TrEMBL record:
PROSITE patterns: HD, HD_GYP
Name recorded for this polypeptide: HD-GYP domain-containing protein
Signal peptide (from-to): 1-31
Gene3D superfamilies for this protein: Hypothetical protein af1432 (1.10.3210.10)
Protein source organism: Streptomyces silvae
Transmembrane parts of this sequence: 68-95, 107-127, 147-173, 185-207, 213-231
Amino acid sequence: MRGTPGAARVHILCAAVCAVLCALPALSPGAATPWGTLGLLAALHTACELPGRWRALGSSVPIAAGSFFPLLLAAAFLLPPSAAVLVAVPGALVGRVDRPPAAARRVWRASQLALTVGAASWTYAFLGGPATLGGASGGAVPDLPYALLPASATALVFSLVLAALDGGILVTAERVAVRHAWRGLPARSVGPHLVHALAGLMMAVLWHSSYGPLSALVVLLPMYISCWVFAQYHRQHAAHRATIRALVQAVDIKDGYTRGHSERVGRASELIARELGMEEDRMEALRFAGILHDVGKLGVPTRVLRKDGPLTPEERRVIELHPEYGHEIVRGIGFLDEARAAILHHHERLDGSGYPYGLAGDRIPEFARVVAVADAFDAMTSTRSYRRGRPVPAAVEELKRCAGSQFDPRMVRALARALDRHGWSATANTVTSDEEPAGLPRQRAGARPPAAGSPDRPGRPR
């Protein structure tokens, strides 16, 4: 427990004591605990956890310590509460732990799962769930339609208790604010746990059938494989997010004016994409494009990015290379796909006067046209060190004024509709990008929009 905050130690100790108290009835003489069923379920759960400790498999193992919930819910359906408490303990104690302190984490996980399974089993017994399962020994047939109600209630209690305990450890060990610790936890977990409960109920029915416990493996194996696939999918997305986060942080460190800008451009790009009816995978790629649109600034000398006065023509040409630098930086990142084109072309203009290649009209990739509008919108509405941001309606009007020459009118209309529908909130007093979008300073009718730059920092390209 060394290195564990005092409040977390108390929290873990209380959970462990409560788990022991819940298990005591099963250990008392004459308790008639079904040790055969308990031992087999505990062994199966431990077998699901042990691969996580094989370093040869690395992070490809699908199940983290104590997380194979269909089997734990099957234990809640098959065993009395005091016995169900014990099923998860061996697997949680021997399962993989990635961060220290390992002992504290194992004790906490074992206690948490013991209490969660015990509460779920108590709920199932209270609602008369065991009577709906039948069994070969009694000659009864499982009453499946009626068995779904107590099983669903059991999954709900399982989810709520698990979320409550998770929030408690976040507050005590991770020092997360109380108002944030439980935010979204039950909502994210109830759906998956209902699916796990259905699989666990199928295992319990087969366990009680004339085919015996071996038949339950028919459910266990495919469910374990599906959990593996699901975990791999989330690990891959976590790796994608980590890659993008590292690149954005590098840009923020190099050019302090952009801090927060990238994330907001990604959010605005996603709003436009949703309004255009893009599919989810393209919408995510477009959000990545918005977040990474300025990653090429990593290739621009810091003295040029942070220069206070006007840029020389040579310095301007250097900054205008940042879309190409960005494209080169992300060229080998396969999951970005269409996002690479947006990074390269988000400074092109519809009339062909943009850079780096002077593309015009539909020759500019769709993603680039979306990001150009999102980038300009956030630059106008964000507060900078030298001026306050414009109100959202004023920014939208400016985008509409420049539509057709600089921006794609369809993208501008989509952003306007999305803002009417969802609104917009930018972090107050955020210092973001140091450039004003092209064409934004007011000018006389018929005049050509000026090159991208800021009235306060003339000639500075975006």
